[in-house]
Write a structure and sequence with these properties.
Structural class: alpha/beta
CATH architecture of the largest domain: 3-Layer(aba) Sandwich
Shape: rod-shaped
Strand order of the largest sheet: 5-4-3-6-7-12
Number of domains: 2
Number of strands: 13
Distance between the termini: 66 Å
Number of helices: 12
Radius of gyration: 39 Å
CATH topology of the largest domain: Rossmann fold
Strand content: 15-25%
CATH class of the largest domain: Alpha Beta
Order of helices and strands: EHHHEEHEEHHEHEEEEEHEHEHHH
Largest sheet: 6 strands, mixed
CATH superfamily of the largest domain: von Willebrand factor, type A domain
Length: 349
């Protein structure tokens, strides 16, 4: 791999044609001035040491030195080592479901608490990344604007509860739309939204929201938290006693995770769907997947170590200038004796 460290110096190459025009103009002017004294035979007798060839050779050497000097100042570099590319930071939105169904305990200690624990563990892994948190139930709110302050992020996540939003439901589409609005619009970083939800009581067109997000270059992933067998939803009554949510007929409500809608959201958003379990929510696995996608987009290898080569060009330029300096414009006595074009008296006869 080859590159110049300072491309601006290469503009100096444009002076070479200018030097050429000035040189030939001076040569023609000098030729006309000498012609005023007489023809070539007379001028050669009056100026036997004159050499147009040496003048041209000296100009060629100076032009060559200028070329090497300009290239040397631009500092040509050669890549000498391949290395795996390091990922850039990710702009990540966690969209967390805080509806009452997230209190079900088929995922211990509860769906919501287990999701919060997974988010905190993920925050501990973040490096050059920025995080925002959107919470949603029947509507969506921005709980944490984009930040790289991971201590603040842990504090905000720990404070999330089902009481943050009173309107019940599972507005996944609204959460995705709010996440898209929260993400920086002009960035070289990868952008992704991770929806964590049980997918129950789905209300809006989440698939369309995910598709529109993908058109803007934002990947939408989903984690289904809960079990398809479901579990009752614990509640605290006004008397302070605890029980489970019931319907109008007094039957205990069983909340079941709906994987189909979340899988469709991930598919439309160009992302991945993971179903959580008691042993692993899958958030860290999904973050690793985002990193691997990013590296694939950037390319697997890159030149990371370049060696300078300017010293060779500058050294060559100094050598050529020294030769030009030592080369006289007039012919030496030796060169006059070795004249291949001088006619002998026998030839003239």
């Amino acid at each position: 791999m080859f590159k110049f460290a300072y491309l601006v110096f290469l503009w100096g190459l444009l002076l070479l044609p200018v030097f050429g025009v000035l040189f030939w103009s001076r040569l023609n002017w000098k030729k006309k001035a000498i012609a005023r004294f007489g023809n070539d035979a007379l001028v050669n007798r009056l100026m036997p040491d004159r050499s147009n060839t040496r003048v041209k050779l000296k100009f060629f050497l100076m032009a060559l030195a200028w070329l090497a000097l300009v290239v040397g100042l631009a500092d040509p570099q050669i890549g000498s080592r391949y290395e795996e590319v390091k990922r850039k930071g990710v702009d990540l939105v966690i969209a967390l479901d805080v509806s009452n169904s997230m209190l079900a305990q088929d995922i211990r200690p509860s769906r919501l608490e287990r999701a919060k624990q997974a988010i905190v563990r993920l925050i501990d892994r973040l490096g050059d990344d920025r995080l925002a948190v959107v919470i949603f139930a029947g509507e969506a709110h921005l709980q944490l604007p984009f930040t790289a302050d991971y201590a603040a992020a842990r504090l905000f996540v720990s404070g999330v509860s089902t009481e943050n939003i009173t309107t019940q439901g599972t507005a996944v589409g609204a959460a995705i739309e709010l996440g898209v609005q929260s993400l920086p619009q002009s960035t070289q970083r990868n952008r992704a939204i991770i929806v964590i939800s049980d997918g129950e009581n789905h209300e809006d067109d989440a698939r369309e929201a995910a598709r529109l997000a993908r058109e803007k270059g934002i990947y939408v992933h989903a984690i289904g938290i809960g079990s398809e067998n479901g579990a009752p939803i614990p509640i605290t009554f006004e008397s302070g006693s605890k029980g489970y949510l019931t319907d109008e007929s007094g039957t205990t409500v069983i909340s079941r995770m709906n994987p189909s809608i979340l899988a469709e959201v991930a598919r439309e958003g160009g992302g991945k769907f993971i179903q959580a379990s008691n042993s692993d929510v899958g958030l860290e696995l999904l973050f690793d997947h985002i990193n691997s996608m990013q590296k694939a987009e950037l390319g697997s290898k890159a030149f990371t170590d370049y060696e300078d080569r300017f010293q060779y060009f500058l050294g060559f330029a100094l050598l050529v200038m020294l030769i030009e300096l030592l080369l006289p414009e007039r012919r030496s006595a030796f060169s006059k004796r070795v004249d291949l074009f001088q006619k002998t008296k026998e030839q003239e006869a």
